[in-house]
Every structure is written in C-alpha cells, then in structure tokens.
Amino acid sequence: MSPWELAFVVTASYLIGAIPVGYIAGRVVKGIDVREYGSGVTGATNVLRVLGRGPFVGVLIADALKGYAPTLITWYLFHSHDLQVAAGIAAVIGHDFPVYIRFRGGRGVATSFGVYAALAMPLAVGLVAVGIFIALTLRYMSVMSLVTVPLGASIMLLFAVAGVGEGYTYSKTIFGAFATLLVTLTHIGNIRRLIRGTEPKIGEGVAAHPREPQSRAT
Hints:
Helix content is 69%, strand content 0%. The protein has 218 residues and is mainly alpha-helical. The longest helix is centred in the first third of the chain and has 26 residues, at 53-78.
C-alpha cells in the first residue's frame, strides 16, 4: 500500500460518502432542508419522520451503497484489506461530515452497514436481521443503531481472534471500533432520552415544523 494509493482511496471514498442523499431528497420531495426538522440530520430515520416511507427506503439504500461501493471497489482494485478499511472509514466520515453541505450530515449507521456488507456480507445480513427485529419489536431506531453496529464490531473481533476464515482480519476490526465509537458519540442525545423515557419511537414525533436550533447530537 503506497501513500498515493491511500490518498486516492481516502479522497474518493470520502467524496462518495459525502453525497448528501437525505438532503437532496428533502429538496426534491418537499423543497426543504431536512436538517431544519426533526433530529436535524440527513440520515434515513430523520427522512422517515419528515418525508415519509418512500423517501426513507430510497435514502436508506443509497446511504448504505455509499459505504458498500467504495469499500468493495477498493478491494477489486487493490486487493488490500487495509485499504478497504481506510475506504470504509472515509466513506462514513464523508456521510457524517459532508463537504458539499457545510459538514452537517448524518450519523453513519446505514453507511456503516454498507461497509460491513463489503467487508463481510454474511455478517451484514445477520446484522440487518437483528436490526429489523429490534425496530419491529422495540420500535426505537436509536436502539437498533446502538446495538447492531457494536455487535458487528464484536463479531468481527471474535472471528479474527478465532481465525474464522481468511476474510476476518484484524485490520477489519479497526473499522468496527471506529464505527462503534462514532455511532455512540452521535447518539449521546438519544441515549439520554432513552434513559429519561422520552425517546420517540418509530411513527412518533413526526417533525411537522422547523426545529429549534440545537446540537445535532440531541
């Protein structure tokens, strides 16, 4: 892995991850900036609250592809797990801090799932199943995020230690640790509301009016 290869992968992956799909959906569907509503982010969950189920599905898939595509393409171009991890991290950072819209993006959950899929598809399929179960039973998207992303990191580490297959390398556990840390930090406000019992469930707290200025994490 040369410095030039690393620079190319990181730059390209960041710019792909930074494509503000949720923001674009808000402008196209309702002519609004979704960051002025609900949780104030561009992620799929806020799009669900503000724009509805159709745009939610589209944004969810697109945000996942922003992590999946650059991470998988990096493997086919360079056959390097280390560069794959760099691509995944850069894509998630791009989603959370997109240069195109002044670095105010999402929380990186769907994009992290996309990276997991490129790094280990069977693991990603299992995480999606767990996520759907949590979303349907508890109806908290924040709980789904806070459980599944760290779970994926833990499984990747366990498989790397156990030597399960050539695809589960220690370098890939770096992405899991990074994704866990970032998702946790961006959900601090949600954790506080869960403790207080004020966290809105799926279908509740629809943002019909512009939000008051506040921290993105709350």
